[in-house]
Each structure stands twice: as C-alpha cells, then as structure tokens.
C-alpha cells in the first residue's frame, strides 16, 4: 500500500448503499469517541483516532415515520487492527477504497467532495 488515505466503506443495513461508519451523537461523549465506537461496531476496525475533524456533511436519513436531516462530522482513524468478528459483522459488507473510488461509490455529494479533497497520508495525518 502506498500510504495514501483510504476509506473503509460499509454497506448500509437498509439499502445496501456504500456509506462510512457513523452513529448518532451520545450525550456526554465527544463526537470523535462516538466515531471510534461506531468504526468498531459497524466495521470491526480499531486504531488511533484524531480528535480533529476533517470535515462535515449533511444528508437526509429515511426513518420509518419521517425524514431526518443529519449532520455528520468526520474524524480520521489510523487503522491498526481489522477484527475477524465484530458486533454488526453479519449485517454489513466492508470494502477499502481509494479517495477517488470512495467518492464515486457514496451517494452523498458533500461526503464525496470531502473524500476527494482530503489528502492525508499515514505519515502526514494528524493521528
């Protein structure tokens, strides 16, 4: 691997489209800590997470009884371990993708733009 930034995409449970690990804010928990927990639960990855965000985007989430406008803050995580077993393993597929490929695969235009514009490397990241 060249050391360039890659994104771990996961399939959403409802539609199967490619998304990134994310979750609802938890009271009393910083956003970066929630992101770290969701990366473990949804994708089975562990590593060192940055407390500095690399961007934000918004999207519409389809709930059973309504639409919700969600705002997502992105925190880079340097992956040290990919687990063989994790909580949502049987519910999702996972795929590593380069910045350009990931930007094409996700549906959210603002997320795709962040993916294209963010140029961290393993050596140069804030992690």
Automatic annotation (TrEMBL):
GO terms under cellular component: cytoplasm
Highest taxon above the source species: Bacteria
- CDD domains in the cross-refs: NUDIX_DIPP2_like_Nudt4
Q: Which residues form the Nudix hydrolase domain?
A: 1-119
Family matches, as PROSITE patterns = NUDIX
Query: Matching InterPro entries, A to Z?
Result: DDP-like_NUDIX (IPR047198), NUDIX_hydrolase-like_dom_sf (IPR015797), NUDIX_hydrolase_dom (IPR000086)
Keyword flag Cell membrane: no
Provide the alphabetized UniProt keywords: Hydrolase, Magnesium, Metal-binding
Keyword Cytoplasm found = no
For this protein, what is any one GO molecular function term?
pyrophosphatase activity
Obligatory cofactor(s): Mg(2+)
- Record's PANTHER family? DIPHOSPHOINOSITOL POLYPHOSPHATE PHOSPHOHYDROLASE (PTHR12629), DIPHOSPHOINOSITOL-POLYPHOSPHATE DIPHOSPHATASE (PTHR12629:SF0)
- The protein depicted here goes by the name 8-oxo-dGTP pyrophosphatase MutT (NUDIX family)
What organism does the UniProt record list as the source?
A: Sphingopyxis panaciterrulae
